[in-house]
Amino acid sequence: MEKKELIVIGAGPGGYAAAFLASDLGIKTTLIDGADNPGGVCLYRGCIPSKALLHAAKIINDSVEAKQIGIDFSKPRLDINKLRKWKDDVVRKLTSGLGQLSKQRKVEYIKGTAKFLDAETIEVASNNVASKYNFENIIIATGSYPAMIPGIDGVSKNILDSTSALEINDIPGSMLIIGGGYIGLELGTVYAALGTKITVAEMLPRILTGVDEDLMKVLFKKVKSAFESVMMETKVVSVTESANGIKVVFENVRKEKSEKTFDKILVAAGRKPDSKNLGLENTGVEVDSKGFIKVDNQLRTSVRNIFAIGDIAGEPMLAHKASHEGRTAVEVISGKKVVFEPKAIPAVIFTDPEIAWCGLTETDAKKENREITIAKFPWAASGRSLTLNRSDGFTKLIIDTDTERILGGGIVGPGAGDLISEIILAVEMEANAADIKLSIHPHPTLSETIMESAEVFFGQSTHLYKPKN
Ligand code: FAD
After folding, report:
1. What is this structure's pTM?
2. Whose CA is nearest to atom 15 of ligand 1?
3. Sequence-ordered strand ranges (E) for 270-382
4. What is the pLDDT of residues 18-58, one digit of tens each?
5. Among protein residues, the one whose CA lies closest to atom 35 of ligand 1
6. Which mutation among 9, 36, 42 tests ligand 1's pocket best, with the greatest number of atoms within 8 A of CB?
């Protein structure tokens, strides 16, 4: 049986980043995935197609909002086939580019499905042929898949998950989104812009659980006006196919029932780690009660030469976390003494407005009883924000009151996802508020709101009169 130096199972942003670095470091690497090219969930049915469609939604929304500043466009005419083709082309360009990079780096790419036979052997099924391989080291990067709600699955072909919703096969008149998390809200933003009446049903008392409340509230206000309805503390208790669509019965927190019929339902109730059909039971690799593979801070599982990275290895289930874990695992395999202990893994919700945060959140600081100061700068005081006809956002820094060190930050507003990187760097470099305050930011830009937040900390913001007590 052929013994491979390094096998990576799964070619998402975790797996391909790991395989590429391994090859750069001179390790002979085999990458296995079911698709023609690397990309995984993120490129084929996650981050990239959703952001392409959100760009289309932004153009539509901007054209409507332009009326406020004296530019009145007529209603956009949609060519849904062309839009779908453009989105698919974006995905094709990126994934075939990754295929090229894989070839250039001489990574052996096997199209197939891998399964462990024991802790030293995998079997790869490819075109009805099964091949067995041993390995010196192996990285599991098999990611996650959309969770379905029992009792709803299979009731109707009009019940979608994030993968089928991204196909935009048509533009339904109405859609119920079950789940007020980021995937539901991003896809709701897309379909609402295309003309669908969106209803969101969330079981918990608020959308985006875990996100700081002040950041969430700015988005919530916008979402409430863009969507038909957002119902909190509401459970879906039954779903049946009827002549007019899918009839849904809801139950609220007071146990009152109501019903409504929708053209489509999108289930956006979280994601599950893809660990079930891997044959892990043959290996001794430990899995937790949710199906995540347990790893240490070097991404090593309970079996020394088996590593796990990305969504399969736990929260946060985000592409950039997967890539960085992949690179760390490879460095460990190559003999470097490194650990994965980031101070600031960012998260971005690409709605309108966007929400982005990193490092310590206000919510966690409260839970941990940390002595912090919040320095907040409202975008209504930002010249750049007003020139964009948007003043609904804000920037905040979470600062250690004693050391004045930047521990985290949050931004809500257009482009928040791009702006957050400065705060990530500040947290990772252990910068303090003065470092940001004294760094000259270009004018007029939204990035100035980060500098002015630092000025707010000292009670010296040029554009906000807020003396320090
Ligand atoms: P994945 O990308 O899930 O890739 C795993 C790969 O392994 C897949 O190709 C799978 O087919 C393959 N595989 C599974 N089992 C086997 C097997 N037995 N043999 C061979 N191959 C196998 N994250 C962000 O950071 N930013 C975003 O904006 C964002 N937007 C998202 C939008 C949507 C709609 C969704 C669904 C997700 C989004 N995510 C986003 C999450 C992001 O896609 C994941 O966190 C990321 O893809 C995880 O990467 P990964 O490498 O762990 O695995």
Report:
1. 0.97
2. 142
3. 271-273, 306-308, 347-349, 354-359, 372-378
4. 999 999 999 999 999 999 999 999 999 999 999 999 999 99
5. 46
6. 42
